[in-house]
Please model this.
Amino acid sequence: MNSTFKDLINQTYPFPQKAFEVRDNALFFHQISLKNIIEKFGSPLKLTYLPIIGEKINKAKTLIENAMSKCGYEQPYISSYCTKSSHFSHILLEVLKYNSHLEISSAFDTDIIFQLFKNGNLKKDSYILCNGFKTNNYIKGIRKLFKAGMTNVIPILDSMEELQAYESFDKNEVHIGLRMATEEAPKSEFYSSRFGIQQSKILDFYKQKIQGHSKIKLKMLHFFVYTGIKDTKYYWNEVHKHVSTYAQLKSICPDLDSLNIGGGLPIQNSLDFNYDYQNICDELIALIKNHCIKKDILEPIIFSEFGSFTVAESGACIFKVLGKKKQNDRETWYIVDNTLISTLPDMWAKKQKFLMLPINRWNKNYIPVILGGLTCDNDDNYSFTSNKEQLFLPELSSNGKDPLYIGFFHTGAYQETLSGFGGIHHCLIPAPKHILINRDLSGNLSYEVFLEEQQSNITLENLGYTNKNYLNCR
Ligand SMILES: Cc1ncc(COP(=O)(O)O)c(C=O)c1O
Model:
């Protein structure tokens, strides 16, 4: 019995969904005809649907505030967007429209913040949470933000040595946070995360170096469980450890008033994605509340740094299927007009699955396929869904008319920086200087600088920050 791709989806998944529906056998994304987009702009194509960002910020706010009201939590929730998930000016300007604060991770990030502040896109009292290893340039950048008059810049110490940098700041009071290192997940090759300060050292560090300090005030304890917010024994165990350290610190540090739960809310990566966001937020907030009641301390202000959750669902990549290669009875390849390995690097680096759907030909029969990119790399392929099921796509037309287009959805976080899109890099760490070394016939060495270390003005330009008019018109 023949059945169409549309039948397959209708029989297998809840469909249509909020962001996806099919009209006249073609896919609509947030009620936008992707066929029309392809007709207008061609393929391959990356797109960013900006309105979803505000929806996601509001959704996170509702989830946490609902959880707070259920357990009588009295302190506020403050959302800060993790800029490393996507640094583009169009993303940050959208995030800022929804009163989100920002979490940053490197020196170039401070240049972005400075630019946004100078252009009036960021308020003086916006929270800027400075995570990550602090290089000299990063410290300089943080100092510059203080000097510019920003009042809620909070460096979060990644190591104990970092403290001395802020002791020399020309300010009466510097508010800091401490990042507490998590234990790594059971399957990890490491015991402890390299990020942050070990739990066993935090209390002594506070007592010896911060308590009674004339300038430094500890305001925030931060943690981020790298596996994300998951209903697992490991996750709850980590949260419990951090909350108890918060309570221990709070009992001796009256300035401490904030707990930063990091990022890690997951995103939809298949049509049958099922995650009870409200329930997990309820559990998390109630755990914090109950521990504070037990220890008789005031509950903390909750900060979050949701990156993927905020921005991933805004992104999509569209490809055209150029042709088919049937290599044996079981393996049929569809070759797309770009590369998967560099457009969506998490696909091979982390074996991450993205939601993938055809854009047209929903009324055609479907076949099992493997997607192949245009590079000559064996890893440039995509073969299974998130449930480890075979990929199916509509058959190609035999006469080349009505070519098949496919879309990878919810790709808006991390993929550009990991792939070096337009010369940007993960956490905006600059590309290093590149030198060429040669040796002449007499054995003498010569050196030539092929490319200088990347400068922040180039990176900011690539991210869309240098067009002042553009910034001002938002
Ligand atoms: C310190 C910190 N906060 C927040 C995030 C954002 O995580 P996610 O994108 O999973 O929300 C990350 C991601 O690596 C991180 O390292």
